[in-house]
Design goal:
CATH superfamily: TerB-like
Structural class: mainly alpha
Distance between the termini: 22 Å
Strand order of the largest sheet: 1-2
Order of helices and strands: HHHHHHEHHE
Number of domains: 1
Number of helices: 8
Radius of gyration: 14 Å
CATH architecture: Orthogonal Bundle
Length: 162
């Protein structure tokens, strides 16, 4: 399932010249911005979360070095400048089918558990993104349980309900 999403993400359109930061209309930037938003939801961006963000984006888009740095910078900047999540979810909803959107929610759970624990703010952020891209609660919760079970020692913080 994850392999199909990664394959899809690798085939998304390029953002143009590498001299320019990609725009938030680029689905890769929208995905990076949402991932960044999840790992930063609790206000503490840990090194392990930064590393997970880099590895997920690198694998998903087959980018490294300067191109990966540019994608991360564009995603982070887009998230900082955004007034809501809709701009990003609109782009992804337009480019991903229902199965791919569910797989993307799985990637967001991977980001939420990057530090070993999903807290209430990360949980709420994934919930809001799932709602905006049309992933229902049952599927969102199943994706969380699947990802949590695949990460040794993963736990939920206070206020996170199954």
């Amino acid at each position: 399932m994850l392999d199909r999403l990664i394959s899809f993400l690798k085939n998304l359109p390029e953002a143009g010249s590498s001299r320019r930061l990609p725009s938030a209309e680029d689905p890769r930037v929208a995905a990076a911005a949402l991932m960044f938003h999840v790992v930063n939801a609790d206000g503490v961006l840990q090194d392990v979360e930064k590393a997970k963000l880099r590895s997920v984006l690198s694998e998903a888009y087959s980018v490294t070095g300067g191109e990966l740095d540019a994608l991360i910078a564009a995603g982070e900047e887009a998230d900082r400048e955004a007034i809501d999540l809709y701009a990003f979810t609109r782009v992804l909803k337009r480019h991903l089918d229902a199965d791919q959107r569910l797989q993307f929610i799985g990637l967001l759970w991977t980001m939420a558990y990057a530090d070993g624990r999903a807290d209430e703010l990360e949980d709420n952020t994934v919930w809001r993104i799932a709602e905006l891209i049309g992933v229902d609660s049952r599927d969102r919760i199943a994706a969380r349980q699947h990802i949590k079970a695949s990460i040794a020692g993963a736990a939920d913080g206070p206020g996170v309900n199954e």
